[in-house]
Amino acid sequence: MNKCRVCGNESGNSIHVAKELQLGLGDEFQYLECSKCGCLQILEIPADLWRYYPKHYYSYRSASATLDYSKSGLTGFKQRFLLHALTNYYFGKKGFFGKWLAGRSILSRDFPLWVRRQRLSLDLRKDSLILDVGCGKGQLLLDMHAYGFTNLRGIDPFLDADVFYDNGVKIYKKAVENMEGKFDFIMLNHSFEHMPNQLETLLKLRSLLKPKSYLLIRIPIAGSYYQRRYGSNWAALDAPRHLYLHTRESLNLLATQAGFVVSEVVFDSDGFTHWASEQYVAGISFEDPRSYSVNPNNSIFKKDDIDGFAELAAQLNDKGESDCAAFVLRA
Fold this sequence. Notes:
Strand order of the largest sheet: 6-7-5-4-8-9-12-11
CATH superfamily: Vaccinia Virus protein VP39
Distance between the termini: 33 Å
Largest sheet: 8 strands, mixed
CATH class: Alpha Beta
Radius of gyration: 20 Å
Shape: globular
């Protein structure tokens, strides 16, 4: 039965065929597109889904424990002071110096785009207990430690083993349903679309949050400009790893079912899906020797092309038409 697993709609739904393109395997999978809420969802989750997350999958590559600005003359105390000032500004504290840095400093470019695009009132402190779900080797957590956060945890069921860094960042080989504790802030950075039990996962995450705390979900967005342009070659479709590709409507519906309120939405595409989709059209997988991700100098793109993709993504972000967004959910 072709029934939407988000809103329950059975009428007018359509079926699309998508191929595995990132690894270049070409395996085919069927996706249902709901005519009511717009959510794209894989019809049948492969029994061997683990096979599509090989050891060299990008999330599991080695992470760097430091941000290096030495070429710009920023090291040691000076670097830490400036990064912490930017953190204070981006996460809601007033200050002319932080605002000045955000507009001029090279340090600001390493803050996630969803942070730079909009100062969010998340009530975070430097010692807030933060959980990153589906974090891989934990590169974002390591960056956040450099920004001044000191109480950072991560989980990922596809890791080979737990990873404990010398700076105190701790990452556990664990699925979210097995997690315990109470957190000040939980984030899922392009991991929610990989999870089969969407509503159950949100309910579990809500139980892990302290009262009046926030959940951040960053996901690809169905129905976007890039999906319309590239169809089955849309890189963010990423069959079969992406089990669900939500629209704003379907994510709002799911969040409401789990007892959350969507307080903010920030579109944060960066041009990646543009060049990756163009590669797929040309028959070049993400890990092909000609891929921009593997060897930029051997790719089909020039620097002006990459810059143009990023510029278009920024314009689409401003219009709310790009294919990636950050949803802030209040418990």
